[in-house]
Structure formats: structure tokens, C-alpha cells
Amino acid sequence: MAARTRDNLPIDSPFGSTISIGMPYQWTNHDNADVQELQLWPHNSLSKHGFVAFVLITFILILIPAFPLLGSAVLWGLLPFLLLAVWGIYFALKQNQQSRQIFEKLTLSLDETHLARTDANGKIREWVCNRYWTQVTKYDDQGPLPHYVTLKGKGREVEIGAFLTEEERIAVYHELLEALRRQ
Q: Any long-range contacts for 3-10 (C-beta under 8 Å, 24+ apart)?
């Protein structure tokens, strides 16, 4: 499988293939040129090392005002609240990180369009349609998001890339139109 970014630069991704610089999606062409894949994922700007560093620095910064209280009983009264604040930040960041574990994979073959979405909870939802009948639609203002992109076919309409920014959804829409026109 030959994977290239929009700038034709191969980059390692957290999913074991390549990603495009600045865009949370990539097009992949298989050795068999008749199959194309589009992989999409949300931005995850905080790495695991950054996560640990942020929580540690927050803990240290919260403790700085407590240094003058060392040896007094007031420190023991404040300490539970300081630790609760650090735990709250840790918990919120961890929940956000887990909710960003979404992955979508669109496979375009000569005769079939297949979309598989893995939700944050691990549930996989799939949609399959004849490629000839697949329609890409962009709702500028009518959807739940500006420039909402959907795929229609086989009596269903499914969203794709709802977690992307407006500019990214517009770019994906145009790239999907171009990819579906090619055969």
C-alpha cells in the first residue's frame, strides 16, 4: 500500500500508516489502483508526554502558594482542595482524550463505497453503497454544523468528518467529489 499526504510527503501516524501535515486525514492508494482509502481522525494536540507534563506542572504551580504554609495546620486544611483541583484537571483531560478516539475509514473501490466509523467507545458503524449511486452532499447552513458533509446512497445518508474544522470539511468535500468522479 503506497500512502502519501496531500503534499506527497510520507509521515508516521498514530494509526500505523501515514498522515498529512496539518490535516487530520489522508488518502491512501493501494497497489491495486482501483481502490482508494480516506482515513479521518480528530485533532489530538496533547500527546501523552504533554499530558503528563501539563498535570505535573499544574500540580507544582498549585503547590507554590502552599510553601509558606509548610509546618502549619492550615496546609492540611488546604491540601485536600489542592489535590482535588489537580485531580479535576487530570480527569477532565483524560475524558477529553478518550472522547477524541474516533476514526473513520472510507474505502472507494470500482463498484463499492464503504464507510466504517469507530466511535470513542469502540463501537463500529458501517455503511456500504454502490459507488455509482453514491452522492456527496455539503450542507452549508442546513446541517448541525457549517459545511456539514454527508454521503447518500442505498436509502441512507451518513455523515463523514463531522469532527473536522470548517475548512477541513470543505477540502474533504471537494476531494470526495473528485475521487468519486475518477474510475
A: 3/28, 3/29, 4/28, 4/29
